[in-house]
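Entry 14. Structure prediction run on the chain below.
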Amino acid sequence: MQDWNFSEYSKETALELGCFLPDNIFDTHAHPGDKSMCDTERISILKELPEDIGISAWREFTSLMIGRQRLKGGLFFALPLFPEDTDIRKACLDANSILMSDLSSSGETVSKCCLLVSPLMRPEDIETHMKTGCVAGFKPYMNLAPGCDINSDILDFVPKWSLELANEKELAVTLHIQKYAALNDPANIEQVHEICRDYPKLKLILAHCGCSFNVYNTLKGAAHYADIDNLYFDTSAVCEGIALTHMLKLFPAEKFMWGTDFPISVRNGRFVGLGNSVFSLQNNTVQDGRLPENFKLMCHGLESLRSFVFAAIESGLSDKQMEDIFFYNAAKLLGL
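Output returned:
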């Protein structure tokens, strides 16, 4: 049993939010994995995490937030946060193998995974995993492509072969778009349209509602994507209620799937939109490493869940639409 430091305030909030949750819940964005492979020195957000962040730890912690009986399964990706001097191709292969082994032995009969993919990899690197029936798609990420960073275009870090394979087999690609303007960036708008047009059987899932961490970027940019049939969103880690409300009013409910972003969901704090970007508010990112006294903190997962629940209420979602977003949309899209 982990010592999750799940505060009394978190427990009270989880109990309150539980009144709005359906009976069946699927987590469409979680990163169980091997913490020893991650760059905990350079990436401060990882330092508060427990040593064990595997699938059993995901189930244990997420159950604290939503209730054990509700949690039916998850869509898992390895954490793509390797040290800077890592052999990226080897790290992706190792991380995918560790995740597949964990999934195979976990007893999670409803769960699936997306494999990390890099421009340094080739289709034969994932051939064995593709035969298992557990793979629902792929997870590219900008730091898995040499020379790419937050300013990179999508097609600079997403391997073309992964898009072709996803289209051929009608799989999902979960994409974390880059650039400070996120949904409002012209290159992102153009290339999301290009991918969905050129690969019509691919199911493109924009992680974090298209990185809606800054509400103003979402308000200005989201409408540009409303005409794309094979585009979907997971809600993971977004704490800006206005952004979520805007998305829920702009797109049909069947386009959304709930997610936690475990293990980011574990640490206390939230993402806050500042200026043209996003700030990670937590103990080690404020002056003197501490928040003011009398602040009641809860885990990021509950901050995000609370934002989504009240955005759903504000948007007037029905019970059926809530059931779909928390389970049935993922079940249909991923073939659970």
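The chain is about 40% helix and 15% strand.
Filed with the rest of this week's runs.
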